[in-house]
């Protein structure tokens, strides 16, 4: 519209809320990414941080633009569909027709996108809970699985 500034800073409260949501997404993505980095996964620290931050940013931008919940739902649907392609790129079928690698990494990328979307929406307890459970599954539970079960083909 004519007469309105091209660039306008939000109120301090909105700015701090946005920084906290994006910051939380960065930290939670780093938590999962660090774990994947430690096991030499194809998608590690930076990938998980960027996926989480990107998902949070898309959702937060939609929220801040004043979109309806139906519009925001479509943004999240786009993230879910799009992240599937990134996750698929981490899956590798090796010569043995029964052996597939990268499924756990693909699932962790999918979870990381969901955590970012939750952070972008501002439901901060839910992404924290999701990241904590995801970390338990990728860390301690994975060690139990390796000790007690035959060789898994999902990592």
Molecular structure report:
It is built from 6 helices and 2 strands; from the N terminus they run H-H-H-E-E-H-H-H. The relative contact order is 0.16. The model has no long low-confidence stretch (mean pLDDT 88). A hairpin with a 6-residue loop joins strand 1 and strand 2. The protein has one domain. With 155 residues, the protein is an all-alpha fold. Helix 1 (12-38) packs antiparallel against helix 2 (45-64) and helix 3 (69-88) runs antiparallel to helix 4 (103-121).
Mean pLDDT: 88
The coarse overall form would be elongated
SSE series: HHHEEHHH
How many discrete domains?
A: 1
How far the N terminus sits from the C terminus, by CA atoms, comes to: 52 Å
Largest sheet: 2 strands, antiparallel
Structural class comes to mainly alpha
Helices, by number, come to 6
Radius of gyration: 18 Å
Share of helix, binned: over 70%
Strand order of the biggest β-sheet:
1-2
Q: What ranges have pLDDT less than 50 throughout 5 or more consecutive residues?
A: none
**What portion of residues belong to β-strands?**
under 5%
* DSSP strand tally: 2
């Amino acid at each position: 519209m004519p007469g309105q500034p091209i660039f306008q800073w939000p109120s301090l409260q909105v700015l701090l809320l946005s920084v906290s949501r994006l910051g939380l997404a960065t930290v939670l993505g780093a938590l999962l990414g660090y774990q994947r980095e430690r096991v030499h996964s194809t998608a590690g620290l930076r990938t998980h941080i960027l996926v989480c931050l990107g998902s949070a940013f898309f959702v937060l931008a939609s929220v801040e633009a004043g979109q309806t919940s139906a519009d925001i739902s479509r943004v999240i649907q786009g993230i879910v569909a799009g992240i599937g392609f990134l996750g698929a790129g981490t899956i590798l079928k090796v010569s043995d027709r029964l052996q597939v690698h990268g499924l756990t990494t693909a699932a962790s990328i999918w979870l990381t996108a969901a955590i970012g979307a939750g952070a972008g929406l501002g439901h901060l307890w839910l992404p924290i809970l999701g990241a904590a459970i995801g970390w338990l599954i990728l860390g301690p539970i994975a060690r139990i699985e390796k000790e007690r079960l035959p060789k898994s083909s999902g990592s």
